[in-house]
TrEMBL record:
<dbReference type="Pfam" id="PF00106">
    <property type="entry name" value="adh_short"/>
</dbReference>
<dbReference type="InterPro" id="IPR002347">
    <property type="entry name" value="SDR_fam"/>
</dbReference>
<keyword id="KW-0521">NADP</keyword>
<keyword id="KW-0560">Oxidoreductase</keyword>
<dbReference type="GO" id="GO:0016491">
    <property type="term" value="F:oxidoreductase activity"/>
</dbReference>
<comment type="similarity">
    <text>Belongs to the short-chain dehydrogenases/reductases (SDR) family.</text>
</comment>
<dbReference type="InterPro" id="IPR036291">
    <property type="entry name" value="NAD(P)-bd_dom_sf"/>
</dbReference>
<protein>
    <submittedName>
        <fullName>WWOX oxidoreductase</fullName>
    </submittedName>
</protein>
Length: 180
């Protein structure tokens, strides 16, 4: 009941917006004990952001990654602090390595010809987990922990709204899955 809440604008599809947000937050000179990276798009048609990156990858992963990098000093100063990265079990159904066995950056922000919405989502969520694990490895000695979480199967949201087939699949699967 004593909490003071203030909304701030952040567009993860714009790295410039992420930078402005981080600067505005830092100017407030307040601690940051918890940062939850939860925004996501799913099943979105292929499009590029103003930064010329595929939108699912940028919104679901790169925007959060950049935000955490920009706020890392605030998180360290606010210790104990925690970063929670909301991922998905669907990360298990993809790969980000090419035929050489090394990271293939073209898989992360594919061309329109190579794009499939479900794979883009899965890859972005795999990146979330890898990022969270590495963030925890690097920052936990400084009092900042990072965890990635799966929110639960078929959470009630409109994340599937971009294609009627996804909506149908979510509707049919929902009675057979656990949810909050």
């Amino acid at each position: 009941h004593k909490a003071k809440v203030e909304a701030m604008t952040l567009d993860l599809a714009s790295l410039q917006s992420v930078q402005r947000f981080a600067e505005a937050f830092k100017s407030k000179n307040v601690p940051l004990h918890i940062l939850i990276c939860n925004a996501a798009v799913f099943g979105a048609p292929w499009c590029l952001t103003e930064d010329d990156l595929e939108s699912t990858f940028q919104v679901n992963h790169l925007g959060h990654f950049y935000l955490v990098q920009l706020l890392e000093d605030v998180l360290r100063q606010s210790s104990p602090a925690r970063v929670v990265v909301v991922s998905s079990e669907s990360h298990r159904f993809t790969e980000i390595k090419g035929s050489s066995g090394k990271l293939d950056f073209s898989l992360l922000s594919p061309s329109k010809k190579e794009y499939w919405a479900m794979l883009a989502y899965n890859r972005s969520k795999l990146c979330n987990i890898l990022f969270s694990n590495e963030l925890n490895r690097r920052l936990s000695p400084h009092g900042v922990t990072s965890n990635s979480v799966h929110p639960g199967n078929m959470m009630y949201s409109s994340i599937h709204r971009n294609w009627w087939v996804y909506t149908l699949l979510f509707t049919l699967a929902r009675p057979f899955t656990k949810s909050m």
